[in-house]
Amino acid sequence: MERSIRDTNVCVIGGAGFIGSHLVNYLVNERNCRVLVLDNLITGQKRFVHPKAEFVWFDITGSEEQLRKLLEFHEIEYIFNYAAEPYIPVSFERPLHVFNINAFAALKVMNAAHEKKGGVKGILQVSSAEIYGNTDGKISEEAKVEPHSTYGASKAAIDSIVQVGWKERKTPAIAMRQFNCVGERETHPYIIPEIIEQIGRYEEQGSQEKPFVVKLGNNSFRDFQYAGDAARMAVELLEKGNFGEVYNMGSEEGVQMYDLAQMIGKLMGVAVEVKEDPERVRPWEIWHLQSDNTKLYKTISGRPEVPLEEALARTIHSYKENGNKWDF
Ligand SMILES: NC(=O)c1ccc[n+]([C@@H]2O[C@H](COP(=O)([O-])OP(=O)(O)OC[C@H]3O[C@@H](n4cnc5c(N)ncnc54)[C@H](O)[C@@H]3O)[C@@H](O)[C@H]2O)c1
Asked: pLDDT digits over 85-141, tens only?
């Protein structure tokens, strides 16, 4: 059944973060929504929140009762939960912390929405491609769920909760298995900011040494989608997707990390040579993550519009505009 999010009251949890801020901009500018952003600003920033959205500091690991009251007070109809501890290596050191935010607190969000007077019309819970194991090519939703980190396990848990939550008591949620995103306001530490920063430091030093050596970990393959495209397509997914189901969200295209560094070098005008830094190599890396969007494309008409090169150029531009810093 189709739903329309236009002109509705929407809550974006994690809306001060990277992808969440693209989503809030889209909901305000293109869908005329009244948007409530809940965020604890652990990685996100208040200045990323669209001025027409209402911002309330809130930590989803806290009181479920308070969250339910906020949803009731703002007469929320739709919820997008983008809040998470998204940096995978944190889960090697602090698995409980990661699971608590990504799975347990996300279940609290679903529960608060369920308990809200009148309920909500739909919830989009962000899952991740990191729930899958290694494959050679594109991965569909039928592939085995085989996380390689507690981050992946936490996303697999909430992804399953979305599926059983609909079966058990009709909590109207969809799980979206997001592949990697790229774009303005990308929070650090991630691979793209890391490469841009390494090359940026070289540019600042005015070094003439050529080619410049970029030090990276695994030369794995990742599917990169422009964050603005991912946000726009996520809204359409919540309007047209089936509750209790899971959907991949990616670009279906991608690149190996060492080639990505070459692309970024070219865009920044620096000749680059990539060398492996053993300290950065992740022990249980998934070597190839590439979305098969067949199910998504049967459901929504939206498609990625911004190619990787343009998305990278926009990311580099936002880094330079910010005084060659990632304080986001
Ligand atoms: N960036 C990617 O490439 C990518 C890929 C796959 C999945 N995801 C998922 O997409 C979502 C958004 O990721 P992102 O890259 O924009 O990360 P981000 O860190 O920029 O955004 C997360 C936001 O959630 C907020 N937050 C964190 N913990 C919170 C809590 N306990 N209560 C309230 N707010 C909290 C942060 O302050 C931040 O604003 C996450 O669920 C992430 O796991 C991201």
From this structure: 999 989 989 999 999 999 999 999 999 999 999 999 999 999 999 999 888 899 999
Specify the residue with its C-alpha closest to ligand 1, atom 1. Answer: 181
Nearest to 121 by CA among 4, 15, 296, 249: 4
Residues of the chain with CATH 3.90.25.10: 191-221+255-288+313-320
Distance 205 CA to ligand 1 centre (A): 33
pTM of the predicted protein model: 0.96
Is 18 in contact with 181 (CB distance < 8 Å)?
yes
Query: Which atom of ligand 1 has the smallest separation from the CA of 187?
Result: 20
Overall fold of domain 191-221+255-288+313-320:
UDP-galactose 4-epimerase; domain 1 (3.90.25)
Nearest Cα to Cα of residue 254 among 216, 224, 285, 230: 224
Taking CB atoms and a 6 Å cutoff, what residues make up the pocket around ligand 1? 14, 16-20, 39-44, 58-61, 82-84, 86, 101, 105, 126, 128, 178, 180-181, 187
Residue 185 C-alpha to ligand 1 middle, in angstroms?
Answer: 12
Task: Give the CATH H-level superfamily of domain 9-183+225-252+291-305.
Answer: NAD(P)-binding Rossmann-like Domain (3.40.50.720)
E strand intervals along 257-305: 272-276, 288-289
